[in-house]
Amino acid sequence: MKAVLGLLALASGVAIAAPAKAPPQQIVVDLTLTPRAAARLADLNEGITISAMYGGEATKARARQADDMGEIWLGMDRKTVVGKAQRVIVPVKTIRRDRFSWVVGGQPKLLINIFTARQRLPNNLITCDIFDGPLADGIAQPIKIACDLIGGS
Known about the structure:
The protein is α+β, with helices and mostly antiparallel strands. Helix content is 18%, strand content 39%.
């Protein structure tokens, strides 16, 4: 069908625009560390992992597919970086766009958690702010997240 329309358009001189691709989505995190957290991570040569989780409250029609909290899981992306303050770009790759209609309002939520990559020590060493809000907000502008050491780590 597309080929026939293309030939008709070509024969008539009418230009048909190619369908626009959706722009790639990404989450931008502006990560800051306290001086003591930065020093400890540098001493250990420890990385930081940014975890972006997608989901939302199930619609009534999809309540049976929800978890025990009434949420629909839509995926997760992670990125591990050097353990220092920086801007991190997390591409949105694994989200189940085909299930957006399963969540209330068709608008998924985004939860950003940040922790040490556990490359050198088995336990997480940092405590960080989180982002828990609409995915659209998380994509629209950089998310500022500050981290410090946990207790006396």
